[in-house]
Design a protein that fits this description.
Layout lengths: L2 E8 L12 H10 L5 H6 L11 H25 L3 E6 L14 E4 L5 E2 L24 E2 L4 H13 L5 E3 L10 H11 L6 E6 L10 H16 L6 E7 L9 H12 L3 H5 L13 H10 L4 E11 L6 E10 L7
Parallel strand pairs: 1-8, 2-7, 2-8, 3-6
Antiparallel strand pairs: 1-10, 3-7, 4-5, 9-10
Helix pairs in contact: 4-6, 6-9
């Protein structure tokens, strides 16, 4: 029978794949963002934030994040999964504006990473392009029969899940998924099943409670597949950004580490917006792996301006308490 052999949660912000000497590019993007009132944010920023902005601190935090990603990558390969089910969000990358489902699974037989022309990418993202796209169009191996089974099981359990089976011209698989391929898989390409959560765009963002319940149903759908398949389940994105909220991040990680579903399902929806909305992906995987143990848990609040902008970088590994003999 199919079984989950490892769970992973990873931040995928371009900042995590940008050398600290270029973090100022992300800061410049923050100051140019009309949604962020940088002056107001600076008045309420954490005390002593200036100490977080020294080059040596940037370097130490960058190094910590790279080490955590390397550990997760090694653990993924040691688990030897046959398929990686990636729970992520699409930021109008694969999906078009007129169709943004709350929950969806890609069931097609072909899917590609289509790299953009570098000159079309905002300057702050260019140093991290290597973590989002190959230099050339790349085909991703899929498991469409398994993906279709997942959808059928989820619908049977009360979730109205959309399916996507066609990649439109000019569209690419989003960075929530390509990051996992490029930074966790590396040279060893493993088939994927992309699971999409609409974390970003109202009005149909699922609530934390709905995400947790979806995770439990997703677990059931994966393990009901009648095949001897080893599965890795990955949450991609988060935690808080573009304004770091350490209390929110602490609550998320506390809920995961201590198996406190009550904490996760009651996270304030008004805080799950913009990049912080990707915490929903983590709630899904936490709901699926509630009985797993936590084998790795690392957190780095990577501030980049006196206004407290940046990204709460988190990296978690879930381990099954036991695995059946193959």
């Amino acid at each position: 029978m199919a079984r989950i052999v490892i769970g992973i949660g990873t931040s995928h912000s371009p900042q995590v794949s940008t050398g600290p000497e270029s973090w100022h590019l992300h800061a410049e993007r923050d100051y140019a963002n009309p949604v962020l009132d940088m002056d107001a944010l600076q008045r309420t920023a954490p005390a002593g934030i200036a100490t977080q902005l020294a080059p040596s601190v940037y370097q130490a935090k960058h190094d910590a994040c790279q080490a955590a990603i390397a550990r997760l990558s090694q653990a993924l390969h040691e688990a030897a999964p046959d398929v990686v089910v990636i729970v992520g969000d699409d930021q109008r990358e694969l999906f078009r504006d007129e169709c943004l489902p709350a929950f969806a699974v890609y069931t097609g037989s072909e899917l590609y990473d289509v790299p953009p022309a570098p000159e079309t990418v905002v300057p702050s993202h260019r140093p991290a392009l290597w973590s989002r796209h190959q230099g050339v169009r790349e085909s991703y191996p899929l498991m469409p029969a398994f993906a279709s089974h997942i959808v059928g099981s989820l619908v049977h359990d009360g979730f109205d899940v959309a399916t996507a089976s066609k990649q439109y011209e000019g569209r690419s698989l989003g960075h929530a998924y390509t990051f996992v391929r490029l930074r966790l898989m590396g040279e060893t390409i493993i088939p994927i099943v992309p699971v999409f959560i609409n974390t970003y765009f109202p009005p149909n963002q699922p609530t934390p409670a709905r995400c947790f319940a979806f995770g439990a149903a997703l677990r059931k759908s994966l393990e009901s597949w009648d095949a001897n398949v080893r599965i890795a389940l990955v949450a991609s994105g988060g935690l808080s950004h573009f304004v770091i909220d350490e209390q929110l991040d602490d609550d998320v990680l506390y809920g995961i580490r201590h198996k406190r579903s009550d904490v996760l399902v009651s996270l304030p929806e008004e805080k799950l917006n913009s990049g912080s909305s990707e915490i929903r992906n983590w709630i899904v995987v936490a709901g699926a792996l509630e009985d797993f143990s936590i084998g790795e848990s690392a957190y780095t609040p990577a501030y980049r301006t006196p206004s407290g902008t940046g990204c709460g970088m988190a990296f978690v590994r879930w381990d099954p308490l036991s695995l059946p003999v193959a």
